[in-house]
Amino acid sequence: MLNVVLLVLAVIPLVILFPHIRKRIKLSTLRHIPGPESESFWEGAARRFHGPFCIPFREHTLLSYGRVVKIPMRMGDLDLAVSDPVALSVMFNTYREVYDLPRWNSDTMRSVFGPGLTSVRGKEHIRHRKQLNPVFSVRYLRQMIPTFNRVAQELTGVLGDKISGPRTELDVSQYFSRYTLESVGRTALGTSFGSLGAEDGTDYSRALKEFGPTLVKLHPWRPLLPWLRRTFPLPLLQWATGVLPWPALRHMRAISDSVYATSQQVLRRKKEMLKQGGESLAQEVGEGKDLMSVLLQQNISSGPDAMSEDDLIGHMSLLLLAATDTTSTSITRAIEVLAHRPDAQAKLRQELLDATTRTGRTLADFDYDAYTDLPYLEAVVRETIRMYPSFYISPRVAEQDTVLPLGTPIEGTDGRPITELVVPAGTMVWVNVLGLNRDKAIWGADADEWRPERWLAQLPASVADAHVPSVFANTMTFVAGNRSCIGYNMALTEMRIALAHLVLAFEFAPSEKEVFWRLGGVVSPAVRGSTSRKPEFPVVMSRI
Length: 544
Ligand code: HEM
Description:
Helices cover about 55% and strands about 10% of the residues. It is of the alpha+beta class. The chain has a domain at about 1-30. A hairpin with a 5-residue loop joins strand 6 (about 400-410) and strand 7. Helix 11 (about 235-245) packs across helix 12 (about 245-275), helix 12 (about 245-275) crosses helix 15 (about 310-340) and helix 16 packs antiparallel against helix 18 (about 375-385). The protein is globular, with a radius of gyration of 24 Å. The structure holds protoporphyrin IX containing FE (HEM). Protoporphyrin IX containing FE (HEM) binds near residues 101, 188, 483 and 490.
C-alpha cells in the first residue's frame, strides 16, 4: 500500500510538470537565436523587458539583434520577437487561427471591460469583428469630419487661452488626450465627456487613463489569470478583487466598475432615443450618426446574431480605451519632433496656409479629401507613426507547434544560418513592430531618422519587395491580419486634423525639461525628475 502511495506521490509532480518539460525540450531548438542575456534563471530578461521603465531596453532588444530575437523569460521560458515579413505573413495568413492573442491578455481585458474585441478569441472574435467592421469604413468617417474639426477648434481655443505672453510653456499631454477622447466619444459613442478645458475630466475619462499604468503594475501576475478563471467561480474572484489588500488590484476593480457603469448608462440612453425615433436622435451629440447608433440600428435587423447588451457595453469601453492614448501619444510624438525641427514645422505651416488660401476655406470647413490632399501633412503623419509606433510589440501565442519560414536567413549564435523557426505550442511570439518599421534593409540606411521627405518621393524598391503584411503604408504600426487595428483610419484622420489645426495656430519649441518615454499601457511621455504618474509633455508655445 505504502509503495502505491509513494508511486502516486512521485507521479503527480511529473504529470503536472510534463507539459512544461516537453515545452522546454522543444524550445531548445531555438537556443541559437540571438538575443539579450538572461539576468538569472528565475527572472530571465522579463523584469527589464516589461515594467514602466523598460523602453531603452526594449528599443535595444527590438532593434539590435535582427529579424528574430530570443528573449529569455522567467524560469527558463523563451519568447520570440519577429519582424521577418515572410514569417509574419505566414502567422497572419496560413496560421491565422493558430496565432491569437494570449489568453492572459484577452482574459485581462474581459475581466476589466467585458466582451470587447480584444477580450474575445477564435470564432467569437471573428463574429464580433464581422459585425463591427462596416461601421469603421471611410464612408462613415467622412461624415465625422465636421465633428473632428469642432473638437480640434476647441483644442486650439483652450490652448490659446492658456498662452500668456509671447512664449508660454504648457503641458499639452492632457489636452491632446482630451481631444482624442472627446473626438471618439462624440463620433463613436455619440456622447460628450465635457469641455476640453475642464481641469480634471470625468470619472470615466480618469478611469480610462489610469487603466494602462495600473495594468503595467499588475503585468507580472497576468499569466495566472486564465488559471484563476478556470479554477474559481467569477463572483468569488470579483469579491476577492474588492477585499484583498493589494492597491493596484483594487484600483483596477474601481476602474472596471466606473467604466462599466458609464458605458451602461450611455447605451441605455441611446436605446431609449432609438425607440423614440428620428427627432430625439437628431438632438443627441452624435445626431444618430455615431458608430454606436449605427451599430444599434444594424443590431435590430440582425435577428439571432444580434449582440447582447453586455457585448455592446464591452465594445464601447474597449473602443474608447483603444482609441484614446494610442492616438494622443502619436500626436504628441509628432509635436515633439516638429518642436525640434523648425524647418519641418515651417514647411507644414506653409502647406496649410497655401491650401486655405487656394481653396478660400478655413480648416473648419475642410472635408476628408481636403485633409488627405496635403502631401507634407500626410508625410509627417506617416513618418511619425513609422518611427514612433504606440505599441513597440504586439502579443501572439502559438496554439500548436508550427514552423515559420524566414524570408532572409539569420545567423545563429553558433555561426550557422537559420532558415526557419520551429515554434513549440505555447510560445509567445511578439510581433516586432518597431524592428520592422525601422528595418534598414527595407527602409534604407536612414531608417532610424525622422525624415518625412521619404514619403514625398518614390519609396525604395526594397519596401515593395519586402511584401510587408501591413494595413497601412507598409508599416506594422497597426499590425495586420484579423486582429489589426480596426480604427486605424479614424486614428490617422484625427492625427491629420489635430496637427493641421495646431500647427496653423501655434509655433512649438522644445522645453528645457528633459522629456523621456516610458510604458504606461502605450509608450507615454514623462518628464525626468517628475513624480507624476500621468503622461507629461511640456512644450513652449507661441501664437502665430
Ligand atoms: C495611432 C493610433 C492607434 C494605434 C497606433 C493603434 C494600434 C493598434 C494595434 C497595434 C492593434 C493590434 C493589437 C494587437 O494585435 O495585439 C490595435 C487594435 C485595435 N484598435 Fe487600434 N490603434 C490606434 C487607434 C485606434 C482607434 C482610433 C480605434 C477606435 C476608434 C482603435 C481601435 C482598436 C480596436 C478595437 C482594436 C482591437 C482589434 C481586434 O482585436 O480585432 N484603435 N490598435
